[in-house]
Amino acid sequence: MKTALNPKATQYLKDKKNLLAFSAGTDSSALFFMLLEKNISFDIAIVNYKLRSQSHLEVEYAKELAKKYGKKIFIKEAPLSPPSIEYKARKIRYDFFEQVIKQYNYHNLITAHHLNDQLEWFLMQFTKGAGLVELLGMELISEKKDYCIVRPLLFTAKKDIKKYLKQKKIKYFEDITNKDIKFRRNFFRKEFSDKLMELFDEGIKRSFEYLHLDKQLLLEEFKIYNLKDLFIIKNQKNDLKNIRAIDKAVKSLGYLLSSKQKKEILKQKKCVIGKNIAIDIDDDYIFVSPYIKTVMDKRFKESCRILKIPEHVRGYIFKSGIEPKEIKNCIERL
Question: Where along the chain do the CATH 3.40.50.620 domains lie?
Fold first, then answer.
């Protein structure tokens, strides 16, 4: 097998407490054994949606692996039914993973996303109308609020993963729902991405490597400072750069902005998104924080007024115990 786990991702996972998102399917089964070979410590978590007759067999296989290799296993049963199965499944899955991560203090969530998945996402976003940041939504290492998502197989083709499974004679389950093209991702996979990967996998891999480097250079153009969950960004005087910086800060708070919300932010300048996130764009700086309504003392409000700290973020600053002078020091470093 000419490609394996990404060296940068592998090094990042060393000496950390890791949780593997496991499904007993092709990709996560291969990743399980690849991580073992690299002596990377991890436990596993699996969700049983009870959508297929073999679901209980997949959970039993996960239990067998956990017992054999001394891994902790976390299991959630969450029966699903239409409509919006894909959306519901993803929300349940990541809510469960985050609950386990917080409760047991894991540093990273490891997922088995691979090169084919990256191309599928790219094509789906491309057909909706997206910029570079949205097109490259999958990162090798993605920072969340309390943990990181690590994708060691992100530049490994599906065919190489299957070769590995065959060579090592590793058991895995095929998810028959992956062939149902009523699901948008499956449609793109069957009609476009699988065919492209079959013909041009090496070129596609190189292109994604170059694009991720371009994205990194683009995002390095702005600095984001944070005090707890308050983010301060220097106004770039450019709507595209500003909204990318805001989007990054908001993602760190666990919220994803829609295209409509991004347009509204740039139009309003001062707003509260989803009743949860406060955003304020002034002539020099951008402030992003959780939105909290609370009673503040007179001294605090006067300090905020003098330092021109926006009203929408004051509630969070007050409740989190951040002193206004700390914000002044942060601004001076931008």
Answer: 7-215
Query: In sequence order, which ranges of 16-135 are alpha helices (DSSP H)?
Result: 26-37, 55-69, 85-104, 115-128, 132-135
pLDDT at 4: 80
Q: CA-to-CA distance for 97 and 103, rounded, in angstroms?
A: 10
In eight-state DSSP terms, residue 231 is: E
- CATH class for the domain made up of 7-215: alpha beta
Strand segments, DSSP code E, in the chain are: 18-21, 43-48, 73-77, 108-110, 141-143, 148-150, 224-227, 230-234, 270-273, 277-281, 285-290
Distance, in Å, from the CA atom of 3 to the CA atom of 202, rounded to the nearest integer, reads 11
Closest by CA to 85, choosing from 191, 173, 194, 180, is 180
171: Cα within 13 Å, side-chain hemisphere = 7
pTM of the complete model? 0.73
Q: Is 2 left (phi over 0), alpha (psi -120 to 50) or beta?
A: alpha
Per run of 10 residues, the mean pLDDT along the chain (length 334 residues) is 81 97 97 97 96 91 98 94 83 95 98 97 92 88 91 97 96 84 88 96 96 81 82 90 89 88 94 94 94 94 92 95 88 76
Give the integer Cα–Cα distance in Å for 287 and 275: 16
Diameter of the chain measured on Cα atoms: 70
Q: How far apart are CA 232 and CA 327, in angstroms?
A: 8
